[in-house]
Specification:
Blueprint (H helix, E strand, L loop, with lengths): L1 E5 L4 H7 L1 H9 L4 E7 L3 H5 L6 E5 L1 H4 L6 H14 L3 E7 L4 H9 L1 E11 L18 E3 L7 H13 L29 E4 L11 H11 L4 E3 L4 H11 L5 E3 L5 H10 L2 E5 L2 H8 L4 E5 L4 H4 L7 E5 L7 H12 L3
Parallel strand pairs: 1-2, 1-4, 2-3, 4-5, 5-6, 7-8, 7-10, 8-9, 10-11, 11-12
Helix pairs in contact: 1-7, 1-11, 2-7, 8-9, 8-13, 10-11
Length: 326
């Protein structure tokens, strides 16, 4: 059986789709699984050794140069690569016009099936026109967890129950693979940055947490100039804090993978730490906890709720309890 997964973005959503791979292979161990994903997340999918072929999609970059011959050549090469194989099953678990169009262009064997979402979850960017490209549309409860969505679509299509914890297929951290720019001792990482200010946790809370963890090193990554300035302001109030240089996505993944403790707001890198089963405190301030909370391990604590961020006291208590499990 040849299977194609279409889940192109974003970082957290691609991560949350990974358990589909283990589920499919558990029930069809001889299947081959390919994946279409935005080029920026290829390296994340590549961490899962059970994905045979990754087809990079670069729409975000192509849009900036549609008139350039090089861009048009890349786009033609993408569609050609997409259509090299005939698949038994194609899954679109994102439900957008662009992912539906990719599904539509993919080739299937006689009797092959193209399966997608009949509806979106609450607050998602689901586009109903994507159903035009399906042969089967699977309805789900609008409050289905982000990790469960793809798993349930596949289980429903293939007739198996989804009744096991998610397996992201990610490698366990190895001390021998620890890069030189990370401390050799156990460290905490604060994933404080996010694109939407309302999802952030107040700086005095981060500073209180950092002081409570002292003398443990606290690493502060950032993804924009604004976040770098925020990290520097936090570091000024936290003993043994260090503002990191600009990291590549894979360096940021390594940062999450190797952490003795990760504390972060509702953002992709926090969810990556949880997927690596690192001791993780997820902070919810302006997004629904039911949608993405790490609920597959006792080493993950989810605090706060939409419109009700947790106190520093609660996060400090959760962090200290998790550190006792390391």
């Amino acid at each position: 059986m040849k299977i194609l997964l279409v889940r192109v973005s974003s970082l957290g959503d691609v991560l949350h789709n990974l358990p589909m791979v283990a589920d499919l292979l558990s029930h069809h161990p001889h299947a081959t699984i390919d994946w279409v994903v935005e080029e920026g997340y290829v390296s994340l999918v590549r961490l899962n050794p059970h994905v045979r072929k990754i087809i990079p999609f670069a729409l975000r970059r192509w849009r900036k140069g549609l008139g350039k011959p090089g861009t048009r050549a890349e786009m033609k090469a993408f569609w050609r690569s997409l259509r090299e194989e005939e698949y038994d099953l194609v899954f679109d678990t994102q439900g957008l016009l662009k992912t539906g169009a990719i599904m539509g262009a993919a080739r299937v064997k006689p009797g092959g099936r193209k399966i997608g979402l009949a509806n979106g979850s609450e607050g998602s960017g689901y586009e109903g026109i994507s159903r035009f490209f399906h042969t089967e549309s699977i309805p789900l409860d609008p409050r289905t967890h982000a990790v469960a969505r793809g798993r349930l679509v596949a289980g429903n299509a293939l007739g198996y129950a989804v009744d096991t914890p998610p397996d992201f297929g990610l490698p366990a951290p190895q001390a021998s693979n620890r890069p030189d720019w990370l401390p050799q001792e156990g460290y905490a990482v604060f994933f404080h940055g996010t694109a939407r200010d309302a999802k952030k946790w107040a700086p005095p809370n981060w500073i209180a947490l950092g002081n409570a963890l002292a003398p443990m090193p606290v690493l502060l990554p950032w993804g924009s100039d604004k976040e770098r300035q925020e990290a520097e302001a936090l570091a000024a109030g936290i003993p043994n804090a260090r503002v990191l240089p600009k990291l590549s996505m894979m360096d940021a993944v390594t940062l999450a993978q190797q952490a003795a403790l990760a504390v972060g707001v509702d953002t992709g890198l926090t969810h990556i730490a949880a997927a690596f089963y690192r001791p993780t405190v997820e902070i919810y301030a302006d997004s629904p906890k039911w949608k993405t909370e790490g609920n597959w391990s006792p080493r993950i604590v989810n605090l706060g709720e939409m419109g009700a961020p947790p106190s520093s006291t609660d996060v400090i208590a959760a962090a200290r309890a998790l550190l006792q499990t390391v």
